[in-house]
Amino acid sequence: MKLINSTILFSVILISILLTGCDDTDSVTPSEDHFEAAGYIIKNANDSTVFKVLKGQVDNTISESFVLILAEDSQKYTIEFLDEDGKNIGIPEHDEHEDSEEDEEHELNFEIEDINFAQFDITEWEINISPLKVGETTFRIQILHEGHPDFTSPYVPMVIK
Length: 161
Prior knowledge:
By secondary structure, the chain is mainly beta. Helix content is about 10%, strand content about 40%. It has one helix at about 1-20; strands spanning about 40-45, 50-55, 55-60, 65-70, 75-80, 90, 105-110, 120-125, 125-130, 135-145, 150, 155-160. Strand 1 (about 40-45) and strand 2 form a beta hairpin. The radius of gyration is 23 Å and the shape is globular.
């Protein structure tokens, strides 16, 4: 009787290991659909880098804060992302899904701490920012992928002059 119970127990354990071991999801290794960024640069309409953040640190050699000029009305900027070494890796590529109405898996999210300082409109990987008043606030950037962030920057300073 003990031999039969041991055999059944061993079989149940073996089947459990095989069933859970065949799962394709790996909770440690990121999915290949995830865009691995360590920072970003913001470029103005002239394609000049005006702000850079890498590994959570603002690059003070470019600017200590993201600066907007109130008198210039709406200002257009593009975002490009950086890898761990600071190399420009562009923006996430998006796959077109035949079965889905959505053609982008990744999207840009721009959060400003105090919405009284600026309004913004995001179109793909461009941000159109309209400064509203002089002052200082903070903002952060996220890459959203299927409802969750693949990348979230820390809040960094924004100055409207």
